[in-house]
Amino acid sequence: MKNLKNLKHEKEFDTKTLISDISDALKETDSTASDTKEAVTLKELAQSRAENSEGRETVVYEPRPLTPDDDMYEEILEQFATAPTKPKYWFEEFGDYWSCSCGHINKGSSCKNCGLERDILRSLFILHKPAGEPGKLNKKLKSAKDKVDQEEKQYADKALKRQQREADSNGELRVVPIEDDDCALDSSQITATSETDDASLPKVSADSKSDAISDAPSQHDKQLPTVVSAPAVSHQKPHRRTKMIIAAIILIILIAAASAAIYVYFAEPAMKYQDAKKLQAAGKYEEAIEKYKSLGDYEDCDELIWECYVSIADKLYEDGKYSEAIDTYEFAMELKESDTLNDKIRDCYIGIGDNYCSDKKYKDALSAYSTAKEIKDSDKLQEKINTAKFGFVKAKISDENEEAVRFMNELMDIKYPGIQKIYDDYYAWHIKILANTSEQDYSTDLSTVSRKDTVYFHVMLTGGEPSEELQLYYEISWPNGQSQIYDLESTWKDGSKITAGFQYPIPLFGKEGELTFKLYDKSTQELLGSDSVTFSK
Predict the structure, then answer these.
(1) C-alpha to C-alpha distance for 340 and 324, rounded to whole angstroms
(2) pLDDT in tens, 123-141
(3) Distance separating alpha carbons of residues 207 and 396, to the nearest angstrom
């Protein structure tokens, strides 16, 4: 960019101070078709050049500075990373006027201070200019415009004076001394020319040179330079013109290359970025992710990719596709951890558990709820867990499933509604009573025996809570209506067996009829079970 700036300045100098002057002078000379021309002084031509180049003072105003506090400060500096001139101020436009990033106010296509192009700066800043934040430039815009207009008027006045001076010279060639090596004119190569060809031109003798020099002070009061033959100018002019054409072509190529580079590194990524954001806003998250990935670390693409994955998972959750949503949330967690994503994953597991409960797959529901509980527990989640346990107990308790028993006891501890009845039924005492004539027979059950036989009632106890023991008593009723009560002094528990024998006293053998056995819980006097047998002859 710095080379472009220097080249621009050289072009401006050559075009305005040398080529234009010489070309115009030569045209004037050709039109007059004089045989010889008076030479002009280098001093006068130097004065003309000085008048043309003066007044290029840079005026720095006070637009809004670019500071680290600006939201886009880092992005702007990154875009200028390869530029030779770093930005100090925001680029702003005010109709025909505009403020360069170097702080200079301009009217035209390029900055007169740093050489940056207006269109290039617009493309760099257009995506980053904060809305509604004008700089100090707006307050001084009127005076800034006046100064720029004054500069333009000075340049126009100088050009007009130069044209008038050239018209007053009556076809004389005025040469401006040039300090640059590439553009310097050797005094031995400057000649006065006419429309005659080289063969018809008169030779200029030493005496004529001397006369020309001696006559000059009376006309211009200045010291004249040495004059040489005409052919040198005729060869130099095309050579310089070719140089200028080549320089212009190179400048155009460089500007095109710079514009292409700006497009590739700034404009194209910015457009892709905006396209990706539109796709994301439209719910086309997969397409947006692909575009964001193609931009690499441009802007906040990584963050937006993460947001797209979260949005995809949210949609899966809304559609009840909880397992797929979990996979997508977990992938997003690998990109960036978030407590919010943990909560979303937990909600997915709860949704899975609810579906299993609806299908009465209580064990699977409990597994899903347990995973959600590991992420974060809550009263609402615990209520879902208790509901699943209750469903499992009702379905499996009759099979004496150990896990069902465990869940039942856990629900009893919190007095879960409806569990008490299941608990009582499960831990109730179960009594089995058999009547026969054998003291060791726990399988035969007789309904009739001889009055002469001894009757044995065999009692087998099952049930009760773990380690629960009972104190019992029994009542025996004879056929004649008499009854007797007997205490069982020992304590009885699950699996206990009780045998009680009864016989009529000899030789009477009592009446025929029914002998009844009843067993009671001593602590509650609750009848636990009974059996009877009939005495016959």
Answers:
(1) 18
(2) 777 655 554 444 444 445 5
(3) 136
